[in-house]
Amino acid sequence: VTPRVRFAPSPTGFLHVGSARTALFNWLYARSVGGTYVLRIEDTDAERNRRDLTDNLLAELEWLGLDWDEGPVFQSERQERHRQVVADLLERGLAYLCDAENREVSGSTLVDGLAVRFRMPAGQTMAFDDIVRGEVSFATDDLEDFVIWRSNGSPMFLLANAVDDADMGITHAIRGEDLLSGVPKVLLMLDAIGAPRPTYAHLPLLVNEQRKKLSKRRDDVSIGDYRERGYLSEAMVNYLALLGWGPPDEVEVRPVSEIVDLFRIEDVNKAAAFFDVKKLEFVNATHLRGLDRADFLQRVAPWVGESAPWPAERFDAGVFSAMVDLVQEKLRTLADTPRFVDFLFLSDPVDDPESWEKAMVKGPSAAEMLDGAAVALADCPWDVDSVLAAVAGVGESLGLKLGKAQAPIRVAVTGRTVGPPLFETMAGFMERDEVLRRIARARARL
């Protein structure tokens, strides 16, 4: 049987990194074994579902590159099928009508305004093998009868989930650990409708640095936000793949195609996975450095276009393209780009108080360094080695190593303590007079 998996989100908000990890592991499993990846939108909660949220969710999945083979199937369009199943369970006595006080109401057909509960059998043990967690069992005596049909005439999540998995021939249900407790109820319904049970794999929880479950309110968990902050889709996929799984050769940063080749659902571990933004940054920076120039320029375009912090008429695409080799190595995200090059396209460098304090106020001999550099740079040859030698020479006369010596020059010229290689930038991309003007401007502030 060809493996069939599904990603079945509810369109009630943004795509959460935990949901994205679930989508990814289903996709990786399908692609690694030649299976079918189904996208199902579980939109039975009419009050909370919005079409724009669905569209956004589909766009984020497409951005991640998680293409689906079938769907999207909308659960709301299958309510007549769900109604048929509930009616059959009622007629067979496996479910019963109940009122608002959860009291059983006699009758074997659906009644408007009444909910339906599944009748929990007594004295049974529901056991199943989970690929990640091993054997799991629940005693039905520990579980209560549960609602499968709302009084407003719509199916509950578990009922719709079970019926749709059965009808779509889902062979493997790969999903978050938080859904584990619902499995015995789903299995009872599958058994009741004569459908085969899927194989389950419950993925470990994602936790923050306090080892608490990731929260939409407390943690940065929106895929869309990371996209807007300049993370690469392939880096996000690469990092999400490491949350509960690891390649056998322990080389963590690699192309998605290699991850597909190496992925085995049996290798997923059950320990909670730490969603580490710093590690995500590292993975992203590594992928950024691997982009060729043309690809990088295409990807970074939104950040150096209309939203950039400089007047459009001052931007020089040729200068920026030539700067790529100096800048790309330093970036963590695409959104970092403007602050590494803005000084080239602004009439004056930005005023960054933290950088000024560090280099000009707390740094050693800032005034003397600026005075000396102004003289040395006024008549030295305008090439990288000569500019470096001029600044280094002034620093040596003041007893400063190059790192300390160049700091006030960097802040005077670029506005910040961190940026592209200073001497290559000055000699290669700036006029001598402009460099001297900026040094004089900074000196006047001291």
Automatic annotation (TrEMBL):
Residues 296-442 form the Aminoacyl-tRNA synthetase class I anticodon-binding domain. GO terms for biological process: glutamyl-tRNA aminoacylation. The keyword Metal-binding does not apply. GO terms for cellular component: cytosol. Its EC number is 6.1.1.17. Gene3D superfamilies: 1.10.10.350, HUPs. GO terms for molecular function: ATP binding; glutamate-tRNA ligase activity; tRNA binding; zinc ion binding. Keywords: Aminoacyl-tRNA synthetase, ATP-binding, Ligase, Nucleotide-binding, Protein biosynthesis. InterPro entries: aa-tRNA-synth_I_cd-bd, aa-tRNA-synth_I_codon-bd_sub2, aa_tRNA-synth_I_cd-bd_sf, Glu-tRNA-ligase_bac/mito, Glu/Gln-tRNA-synth, Glu/Gln-tRNA-synth_Ib_cat-dom, GluQ/Sye, GluRS_core. Coiled coil: none annotated. Residues 4-104, 115-281 form the Glutamyl/glutaminyl-tRNA synthetase class Ib catalytic domain. CDD domains: GluRS_core. It holds the Pfam family tRNA-synt_1c. Belongs to the class-I aminoacyl-tRNA synthetase family. Glutamate--tRNA ligase type 1 subfamily. This is glutamate--tRNA ligase.
